[in-house]
Design a protein that fits this description.
Layout lengths: L10 H33 L2 H37 L3 H28 L1 H7 L7 H13 L1 H16 L3 H25 L3 H22 L17 H35 L2 H37 L3 H28 L1 H8 L5 H14 L3 H16 L3 H27 L7 H28 L1
Helix pairs in contact: 1-2, 1-7, 1-8, 1-10, 2-3, 2-5, 2-6, 2-9, 2-10, 3-6, 3-9, 4-5, 5-8, 6-7, 6-8, 7-8, 9-10, 9-14, 9-15, 10-11, 10-13, 10-14, 11-14, 14-15, 14-16, 15-16
Length: 446
């Protein structure tokens, strides 16, 4: 099979060559979480779903760390290859892998030792700590699997093998779903069964990803002598916006849980667990589009092929916009479809609140797609300040402030407006960065 050339092949053909496998990988990765959520909701009940939501920030942090190193290192590796510097490309890959190993082991050890205090800080109490522990302790010990899974996927995609990454994730997720059913419904292993199934599925994904390094397509070289603190700092800067995309969910879950418990109660947490897990799927679609464009944009940016960079940006923007409109229509017109997918027998109170909340929340997706794509675009063109600013506004600043302040002024129902308003404001900031970048290039050309 002819190897694709990111510098000369048609930008449209390259984008869609990457799009299917990348969206597939991103979507299937979200199934690791969704399979647990749906089956815990059906097999354990509302209490299990609430416990899973409390642990969700830790789940997001593992994927975030993997993307910090994988996407950050992958972008820089592609830029280095585009400029013809293979030695620098190997340095970024090796540095990222060594860092992933150290960070993941630290997470597993310290997370296991201080598990209960962390969970209480995230909102657990004496009524649900056993359920949280049943799921979370196994997941925490398996930290290296989850961090390497997300980081290796990014590097292998940047090494022109998106289909290999998709096959690895698809196989692991399929096994995860099968084991979820067996462990929860057949062997009645409860929360631990769901977590154990996910760990086994992810281990298979990692094993298949590693096979890439023994194929002829592999161009990456690993060596401890390539490790560099300077390279790690560059990777962290470049990948920080991807880190924040995943952390956005973790931060929002934490803030939402505490605010909802204060103003609405446990019913609000159950409703938000539906919304946050639907968001995992929607964001995986937007991330898939962004990651499909990323290797092409980064490589051509490194080679100073700016016309091709703009062509890919245009195609990616249109694609993510179409997906956003479809998502909005599903959530706005068919909220019951989503509600019954996660809760087997919702009470009238949950059903009424969830319908109202979902219809409001889904307006956010009409802006979120642009924010995620342009954050990735700025990241791939080595404009980390713009990329990081977008994600800080989305995940740490506006969202947290609005979730806390709006219900104080307008009442409990205002909580659901926080995310749509956040994404709308961030969209205009992203457009300002885009306009400023174009103005600056015009000025420099003169």
């Amino acid at each position: 099979m002819k190897q694709v050339n990111l510098l000369t092949d048609s930008p449209r053909r390259l984008f869609f060559h990457y799009l299917g496998p990348t969206i597939g990988s991103s979507m299937v990765t979200s199934i690791y979480i969704l399979a647990d959520t749906i089956m815990v909701g059906q097999g354990v009940g509302d209490a299990g779903l609430a416990a899973l939501t409390i642990f969700m920030p830790i789940v997001a942090s593992f994927f975030a760390l993997g993307l910090l190193l994988g996407v950050g290192g992958g972008v820089l590796m592609s830029v280095a290859k585009g400029s013809g510097n293979e030695s620098l490309a190997h340095k970024y890959f090796s540095t990222a892998m060594i860092s992933a190993a150290v960070v993941s082991v630290c997470f597993a050890v310290f997370g296991a030792i201080f598990f209960d205090p962390m969970m209480y800080a995230l909102g657990a109490d004496t009524t649900n700590i056993e359920l949280v522990r049943g799921y979370g302790l196994c997941y925490t010990v398996s930290a290296p699997l989850f961090i390497f899974s997300s980081s290796l996927q990014s590097f292998i995609r940047n090494d022109k093998s998106p289909r290999h990454a998709m096959i690895a994730v698809l196989t692991g997720s399929g096994l995860n779903i099968l084991l979820d059913y067996l462990f929860i419904f057949v062997f009645i292993m409860g929360m631990f069964g769901a977590s154990f199934a996910t760990s086994i599925g992810t281990s298979i994904t990692v094993c298949i990803l590693i096979i890439h390094f023994f194929t002829k397509k592999n161009t990456m070289r690993f060596s401890f002598r390539f490790f560099s603190i300077k390279a790690l700092w560059e990777i962290a800067k470049c990948g920080f916006s991807s880190f924040l995309i995943e952390c956005a969910n973790a931060v929002l879950v934490f803030v939402f849980n505490h605010t909802l418990l204060k103003y609405i109660g446990s019913v609000g947490v159950t409703v938000y667990s539906i919304m946050s897990n639907v968001a995992v799927v929607c964001m995986s679609l937007f991330n898939g589009v962004t990651l499909a464009a990323q290797p092409i944009i980064a490589t051509n940016h490194g080679a100073d092929n700016h016309k091709r960079v703009l062509q890919v940006r245009h195609i990616g923007t249109i694609t993510s916009s179409v997906i956003a409109v479809i998502i909005f229509c599903v959530g706005f017109f068919f909220p019951d479809l989503l509600i019954y997918s996660y809760v087997k027998d919702p009470t009238p109170e949950i059903l009424e609140l969830a319908r109202y909340a979902l219809r409001i929340y889904f307006f956010a997706y009409l802006f979120m797609n642009f924010n995620i794509f342009f954050s990735g675009y700025f990241q791939s063109t080595l404009r980390p300040v713009a990329a990081i600013t977008i994600q800080i506004l989305r995940s740490l600043l506006l969202s947290s402030v609005l979730v806390s302040v709006l219900p104080m002024i307008f009442g409990a129902d205002a909580i659901w407006y926080a995310v749509p308003i956040t994404e709308c404001i961030t969209f205009f900031v992203a457009m300002a960065f885009l306009f400023f970048g174009r103005f600056q290039k015009t000025k420099d050309a003169k």
